[in-house]
Amino acid sequence: MDAIIRTIDSARHERERERRTEGEHGTAPVAAANAPDLPATADVGLTDTVTFQLPVVALDEARRERERILAPGAVGAVGGPYKMLRTQVMRRLAELHANTLAVLSALNGDGKTLTAINLAIAVAAQSGHTALLVDLDLRNPSIHRRLGIEPKVGIEDCLERGRPVHEAMVKIAGYERLTVLPARAPLAHSSELLAAPRMAEVVEELQTRYINRVLIFDLPPVLLADDALAFSQHIQAGLLVVAEGRTARLNVTRSLELLHKLPIVGTVLNRSQQSIDTYY
Ligand SMILES: Nc1ncnc2c1ncn2[C@@H]1O[C@H](COP(=O)(O)OP(=O)(O)O)[C@@H](O)[C@H]1O
Ligand SMILES: [Mg+2]
């Protein structure tokens, strides 16, 4: 397994940033704004000549900050660790000739969804690369809520009812090379869907049809459902998220044992209390 990447506890970082800014200027920091005038639809790059017009959803600044989602082109203490994570993940994926990655953790609340979203943003921030973020935590989908998307069609409709995947795809205003494939509503029988041949077809289509695309899948916790295990047959690599001071070592070991066939490209030590001054 590769080096551990630390993503800092961004709540702590925010407190520190506010303290500094107040000390220096007496005002709250001004956050980067998303581009205000955006088209309602955007083209998506395909390997063939068909282009789809995808709906574009605006992510408002308050939601973005509340959900700790990276601003487009974010750097510094918040963006830096994700850029480093991105670079290492991309290098390992290239070594594996892979472009599909599952974001995994032992239990709930370790930071899978946040890591998946911010990693996808960091991948898409690299010119020449596009990222597709797919919500396969079908038991408890949350990417749509985090990003303020109200999907009419979700990935579950593509899996269950054969709807074409592009009907569920959404772009987020200001995040140029990022596409999101959200889920709509919780499903009880999700592991059957994730293990089914239709899932393999969908992954293959997503994998081969789009140019320079990295596919990032958010999944339910490895130890709470068989979904991650069921889905692992369809993908090439995993990234393990561990919450510092929260995830028990035994649970990490059990997760890795369960997924022993899947190459793990690295571990994210999330909510690290390490000083933010080491990132610049
Ligand atoms: N590095 C972090 N700093 C601060 N809050 C975090 C961090 N990572 C996750 N969180 C918060 O913890 C909660 C759980 O994270 P989430 O990504 O939903 O975990 P999971 O998908 O593994 O259940 C969310 O409210 C998220 O915003
Ligand atoms: Mg989650």
Provide a quick synopsis of the model.
The chain is of the alpha/beta class and 280 residues long. The protein has helices spanning 10-25, 61-66, 76-95, 112-124, 143-147, 155-161, 190-195, 197-209, 227-232, 249-258, and strands at 4-8, 41-43, 53-57, 100-104, 130-135, 170-172, 178-181, 213-218, 237-243, 264-272. The protein has ten helices and ten strands.
What distinguishing features does this structure have?
alpha/beta, 10 strands, globular, single chain, binds magnesium ion, Rossmann fold, binds adenosine-5'-diphosphate, 280 residues, ten-stranded mixed β-sheet
Per DSSP, the total helix count is 10
One letter per element, helices H and strands E, the order comes to: EHEEHHEHEHHEEHHEHEHE
Bound molecules: adenosine-5'-diphosphate, magnesium ion
Low-confidence stretches: 20-39
CATH topology annotation: Rossmann fold
What report would you give on this structure?
By secondary structure, the protein is α/β, with parallel strands linked by helices. The protein has one domain (4-278): Rossmann fold (3-Layer(aba) Sandwich). Helix content is 36%, strand content 19%. The protein has ten helices and ten strands. It has helices at residues 10-25, 61-66, 76-95, 112-124, 143-147, 155-161, 190-195, 197-209, 227-232, 249-258; strands spanning 4-8, 41-43, 53-57, 100-104, 130-135, 170-172, 178-181, 213-218, 237-243, 264-272. Strands 1-10-9-4-8-5-7-6-3-2 form a ten-stranded mixed sheet. Helix 10 (249-258) links the parallel strand 9 (237-243) and strand 10. The longest helix is centred in the N-terminal third of the chain and has 20 residues, at 76-95. It is globular, with a radius of gyration of 18 Å. 43% of the residues are buried.
